[in-house]
Amino acid sequence: EKPKDKLKSIKEYEIDCELPERYLLTAYTAKIMTLKSDIGRSFLEIGRLLAEVRAQKIYQENYPTFDAYLSDIFPQSRATAYALMQVYESNIDPELCLEIGWAKARELASLEAVEAIPEETRVKIKEIVQDPDVSTKEIKEIVKKIKAEPKKPVKRVVSEVKEKTAKVKLESKNPTKTICEYCGKEKEGLS
Known about the structure:
- By secondary structure, the chain is mostly helical.
- It contains ten helices and two strands.
- Helices cover 62% and strands 3% of the residues.
- Helix 7 packs antiparallel against helix 8 (119-129).
């Protein structure tokens, strides 16, 4: 059996206790790499697999540290790998995660680590992320502001973000000035 054929057959395994220990890392990695191409639909499963590799220290078969393993399978961004695990390990309902998608779930999960955020704020944010009219970019800005000022009323934060978004959209229609989407400052020149 050629090595590529062997890897292909391992991809087909549902990872369980039946698999010999020496093949576990290969099996997990193959499954993660397969799912990685469709992260938008597979983010919870990838997060689960990564969390298992870390918790069970399966990476130690071939890597000295979990970060070394991540550097190999997520060379562009280990932060993405940690965010996938954070979403999976969060207290967010998995059905809600799948409904709102990877990008919004990532932002929502990042709030869980901030203990100063009141429970009513957390509930309100979960409602906001489900609104299809609220973009991921707006959710990211709302989360950033709430982390900075956890006691600030959510309604006020949301209205500030919506107002800024509307202003940026309106002002960016001016052909001689554009607004930087990230900092909100005007830039001269044709857009």
